[in-house]
Amino acid sequence: MNMYEIILVVLNIAALAFILISVGSWPVAVALMAIMIIVLVQKMWFRQELAKMDQKKDDLVEVVSAKIQDFSDKIVNIRDDVNRHMFAIENKISGEGKDYEKEMEMYYRDLAKKILDVENNLSKIKRTLGAGLGAMEERIGRIETELGMFTTIDEATKTPDESDDESEAF
Description:
The chain is mainly alpha-helical. Helix content is 89%, strand content 0%. It has one domain (3-169). Helix 1 runs antiparallel to helix 2 (26-93) and helix 2 runs antiparallel to helix 3 (98-146). The longest helix is centred in the middle third of the chain and has 68 residues, at 26-93. The protein is rod-shaped, with a radius of gyration of 32 Å. The chain starts with a helix and ends with a helix.
């Protein structure tokens, strides 16, 4: 419990004591105390659920980023291997004649063009995935706002302790 919750409990106990002294009604005081306990338990549960959701989101982003990086590294390695092999092949056939040289150069250019196309497609995939992640975060933020989990999108980026401090101050 943070400081605001402790102050809330003390004020509720003081209000209950006032009700007991002024009205002398034990059932009302007990009912109010039960309501206060229920609210505090639900608030603690909700805070834990928010922390779990944030952790899951962070884990998913890390997994997706790692897979994209692995895929990108593999494409770069393949390109480097192809370039090395093409260079070796070019050196072997350089002495055999211009016809073979022209034909191999054409294949080399074709392969380089295909590699460039693969790199361009990879760049498009990265941009699309980045936009998709951004859109997904916006949708999650809107859903959280609609459900009343956060009053603003900025609160979604705060830690649970920061957002609780502000909401309890009101």
